């Protein structure tokens, strides 16, 4: 079977080289580019992101990245977002009083985490749902987070007519270790061809490597 081809989307944001190396180690051939045609043709598209929501959206729009994402998803072609690359998939984000329109692939607001210590930085466990493909074999492992903003309310509504393959699987995490002192937020989503993580799998050691392999394996039949 042919090696999956993955594009890491280059729009001026994210740990690009580390993302490329991590996906290569997961078993894919990887190209770093912002070229629309190349990104459309790949088996998988990885959207990284660090920094501010507004800056990431500005960079993404400069290469028509939101169109690339939308066109791939309309054809059922896999896309995976990481950190702010996940956040920009939602409708909007608000930072320092500035509200910015996101890609709108999912409803919801990216907002400041309500916790005693922000940013939420370091290793944390997650609450993965039953049936998760992304977290298969690493459900109990810790992953590396570094962020001050997140999605605190999942608001996508589905119904009985939504195909089972497109029913979203939402993974949660919580800041802090003291009962009642933390804040729950979306740590990952699996929703048809669109997957994303708030944490950095490329910085999450063996667990992150296994998670990326889980994603790359799905591309072989994409």
Query: Can you identify the CATH superfamily?
Result: Class I glutamine amidotransferase (GATase) domain
Which oligomerization state do the chains in this entry correspond to?
single chain
Shape: globular
- The largest sheet has its strands arranged as 2-1-3-4-13-12-11
Computed over alpha carbons, the radius of gyration is 16 Å
Terminal residue distance: 12 Å
Return the structural class.
alpha/beta
Contiguous runs where pLDDT drops below 50 for at least 5 residues: none
Largest sheet: 7 strands, mixed
CATH topology tier name:
Rossmann fold
SSE order, one letter for each helix or strand: EHEHEHHEHEEEEEEEEEH
β-strand number: 13
Mean pLDDT: 93
CATH class call: Alpha Beta
- Which percent bin holds the helix content? 10-25%
Our estimate of the beta-strand percent is 25-35%
Number of domains: 1
Number of helical stretches of at least 4 residues: 6
- Which second-level CATH architecture applies? 3-Layer(aba) Sandwich
